[in-house]
Specification:
Blueprint lengths: L6 E6 L1 E2 L2 E2 L1 H15 L5 E8 L6 H6 L4 E6 L8 H15 L3 E5 L2 H14 L3 E5 L1 E9 L4 E13 L4 E5 L7 E5 L16 E4 L30 E5 L9 H11 L2 E4 L1 H5 L20 E5 L5 H4 L7 E6 L12 E4 L2 H16 L1
Parallel strand pairs: 1-4, 1-6, 4-5, 5-12, 6-11, 7-11, 13-14, 13-15, 15-16, 16-17
Antiparallel strand pairs: 2-3, 8-9, 9-10
Helix pairs in contact: 3-4, 5-8
Length: 342
């Protein structure tokens, strides 16, 4: 089957009155995927209350069309009303690909929509590509299929999943794994106002109060991350990692081994089964550099690795490597930084 991709859509999640970063990352990725098909449209679904002005930011990031559903009922996310809107839009416009951020909202919404449309869905993707697929069972060949790539079996393998038979091909994508392009304010597009009749049954749940709290750990937005691994040696020694992060004004990260050993809490984990990060500076302390960790941090601007093993795989991706005991090196780094900051 020779199929072309005509429409790649993104669900534009609204967070704190702004389009979430992961949605803008996906718009940029959709633009990359669409570039190989010339006339392929990059579209976005924007749902909320008084959110029409946010379409300009989506146009600046590369959307040609934004489908906006505005209503007071959409002011706070509820599963059923949002499912009705997105299902209606996808059934009417039939995009080839639908991408949603793997946020708490996206993880709730995407499977509902996929179930309604009876299409496949791959969750928590870390990469997206397009290519051919040969089905050995049905003995069919397909062109321009979305490769939905994600870790599997606890991060021990990388799986490539395809949904060749149904449209749209749906995937949720982790925040931070795609590069967000610089917006171009000169870009413009078409804003389509969408009216959807929401059945009363979808409004059965009423939101009486909505409370939010700031994230305690913000790895995706951090410019500097100091991360510790099993080589730190213990929970007490992990205080060295925290001290260096505090001095540099950065966040504390960790490998899965450090988290599993109880040195630090799960929200600090970087890697395939944690958070994917792109800081300006990443300092890896006592981290051996297993592939599961490297794929989560290898796109950092500068990587400094501290490890007592000169053959540790982390040095393969590090821009600067220090071989030695981190218990001796980190205090010297802290002192040197403080002395030069005076």
């Amino acid at each position: 089957m020779n199929e072309n991709i005509e429409k790649i859509w993104v669900f534009a999640e609204v967070e704190g009155g702004e389009v979430a970063d992961v949605s803008l990352e996906l718009v940029s990725k959709a633009g990359e995927l669409a570039a190989g098909f010339g006339a392929a449209e990059v579209g976005a679904c924007l749902v909320g209350h008084r959110v029409r002005h946010l379409a300009d930011g989506l146009f600046a990031c590369g959307c040609q069309n934004v489908y906006c559903a505005e209503d007071a009922e959409f002011a706070t996310y509820r599963t059923l009303p949002y499912t009705e809107v997105l299902t209606h839009l996808l059934a009417e416009h039939r995009p080839d690909i639908m991408l949603i951020g793997a946020t708490p909202l996206g993880r709730d919404l995407a499977p509902r929509v996929a179930s309604r449309l009876q299409v496949g869905l791959t969750a928590d993707c870390t990469d997206l590509q397009i290519g051919p697929h040969r089905d050995p069972v049905r003995k069919k060949s397909y062109e321009n299929i979305l490769y939905q790539i994600r870790p599997a079996f606890g991060g021990n393998i990388i799986a490539t999943i395809v949904s060749p038979e149904k449209r749209p091909q749906m995937a949720t994508v982790r925040p931070g794994v795609m590069h967000k392009a610089e917006p171009d304010e000169s870009r413009s597009g078409n804003l389509h106002e969408v009216q959807v009749d929401i059945p009363r049954t979808a409004l059965a749940v009423e939101v009486l109060e909505h409370n939010t709290s700031a994230h305690r750990v913000d790895l995706t937005g951090a410019g500097i991350i100091v991360a510790g691994g099993a080589g730190v040696g213990g929970k007490e020694n992990f205080q060295l990692i925290r001290r260096l992060a505090d001095v540099l004004g950065g966040e504390v990260g960790a490998s899965r081994a450090a988290v599993d050993s109880g040195f630090v809490e799960k929200p600090h984990q970087v890697g395939q089964t944690g958070t994917t990060v792109r800081p300006k500076l990443y300092i890896a302390c006592g981290i051996s550099g297993a592939i599961q960790h490297k794929v989560g941090m290898q796109n950092a601007g500068k990587i400094i690795a501290i490890n007592s093993d000169p053959d540790a795989p982390i040095f393969d991706v590090a821009h600067y490597g220090i071989v030695g005991d981190l218990n001796l090196i980190i205090p010297k780094l802290i002192k040197a930084y403080k002395d030069n900051a005076r």
